[in-house]
Amino acid sequence: MAFNQFMHPRNIYRQKPVYEQLAREYSDFANHVYRDEKGKVHIDYGDIGALRSLTQTLLKKDFHLNVQIPEQRLVPTLPMRLNYILWIEDLLEHCRLCYQIKAIDIGTGSCAIFPLLATTLNPEWRFIATEIDPINLDYANKNVQNNNLNNRITIYDNHNIDTIFKHLVQNCHFTFVMTNPPFFDDTFNDSFEDIATKPNGHKTSFHWRKMNSASTDEAICDGGELAFIKRIMDESFQTKKSIDLYTVMIGRKKTFLELKCLLKDMIENKTLASFAHTELCQGNTKRWALAWTFDDRYQLANSPKIIHLKSKPLIHYLNPNMKCCDYDIQSIGNFIENLLLNDLHIEQFQMIKLNKRIEFDIKSNEANWKNQRRKRREKLLQESMKTMHIDTDVFIATGKRPLDNDQNNGDGQNLKKFSQSNELCKVNLTYLLHCSLIIKRDKQDIVIKMETKEMSQNKSATYELLQYFKNKLT
Ligand SMILES: C[S@@+](CC[C@H](N)C(=O)[O-])C[C@H]1O[C@@H](n2cnc3c(N)ncnc32)[C@H](O)[C@@H]1O
């Protein structure tokens, strides 16, 4: 379950469900579990019946949703679908889109999983959910009715209609569009592979098509997901601000990178206001999502995202002749704690003192470690002006001194931007910086080891903070 730690922070399935307990409570699910030689309960991830039962059972247990999924139709994996919905919630929060939320789900499947989950989590939201497959349409309608959601979710038969969604938007405004599009090209040459963990714990790579019960309509469209999403993009250029946010879930990294480049070009050509992207992680599977908008009130570029950062630990050997504090783990830990609190004003950190090491977990949305040299220069300048009896108020009030250059102005703006995003990130739980810092011995030496953690928006903040500590720990 390599990627579970990168699931959305509000995803309840970061904690894997306990199959033994589920089997005790739900008899249908109990038919699909087995015990290994140590007595631990598992399901066979290669058995579509078991996966179907798992999704139905979790929908019932965790969301009180009663759902039927027919054989020969796609079985949605719940944690991944939930990741996508939670990211959309973040985007709406970021854009302050809170009222009268009306959405379109393109290709809702038999389960109508996105509208059912999203309206259960957000009692104000309403959906039009489209489908072309007759069996899916039938089941989606029943699933909506059986859960008494027909006043909030409308299933729409898109069959025989050439456009994907733009016909729904005439004289209507929607808050967002979402879709998990059909993924395969009709040439059947797509090698869309997932990595699965066998019950014995070994990893195996398998061809997804052999593993899922999806019908041809569900899984295949001309040109695969890339062509389908390009059609959505084309239509979005006709509907523009009639929909606040356009979002898509993507199955292949290659498609994601190509679409991201397209969106970047559109931003450069000023045909689009902004766009955002994120990773959606579950178990051993990773998907991607993109969002774009034509409305420049919504600054998607600095919206919350989850990126799986493969980071190498940064290790720094401390100088035994350091003057700032004693060369022992306790003193260095206290010195760093003091810097975090009183110099960097970071309040979101934990310090754990263990027998032979001290560990910190640090989160921040303020980059106060930046521009330390400039800050020192400013302080010195102010002090020297005071002794020269020059009125420093003018400079301090405007933030401009004769020595200031564009770089300095830019940095000031950056700091402001970070503190603004602080407000937003409280809800979304992503940070400008999230890292661990460990102080420990390596033979005779003391080292600090820093590593970027999952809620960090990028890796550079960890490098910068290490640089800051290096300058202080002399
Ligand atoms: C990959 S499935 C996704 C199903 C569901 N949303 C989920 O995430 O499990 C894609 C769905 O899109 C439907 N579909 C394909 N082309 C469509 C179109 N032009 N309009 C609406 N739905 C379409 C398929 O029938 C299929 O159910």
TrEMBL record:
Keywords: Methyltransferase, S-adenosyl-L-methionine, Transferase. InterPro entries: METTL16/PsiM, METTL16/RlmF, SAM-dependent_MTases_sf. It comes from the Eukaryota. Its EC number is 2.1.1.-. One of its GO terms (cellular component) is nucleus. GO terms for biological process: rRNA base methylation. It is an enzyme of class 2 (transferase). GO terms for molecular function: methyltransferase activity. S-adenosyl-L-methionine binds at R81, G107, E131, N180. Coiled coil: none annotated. Belongs to the methyltransferase superfamily. METTL16/RlmF family. This is U6 small nuclear RNA (adenine-(43)-N(6))-methyltransferase. It comes from Dermatophagoides farinae. The lineage of its organism: Eukaryota, Metazoa, Ecdysozoa, Arthropoda, Chelicerata.
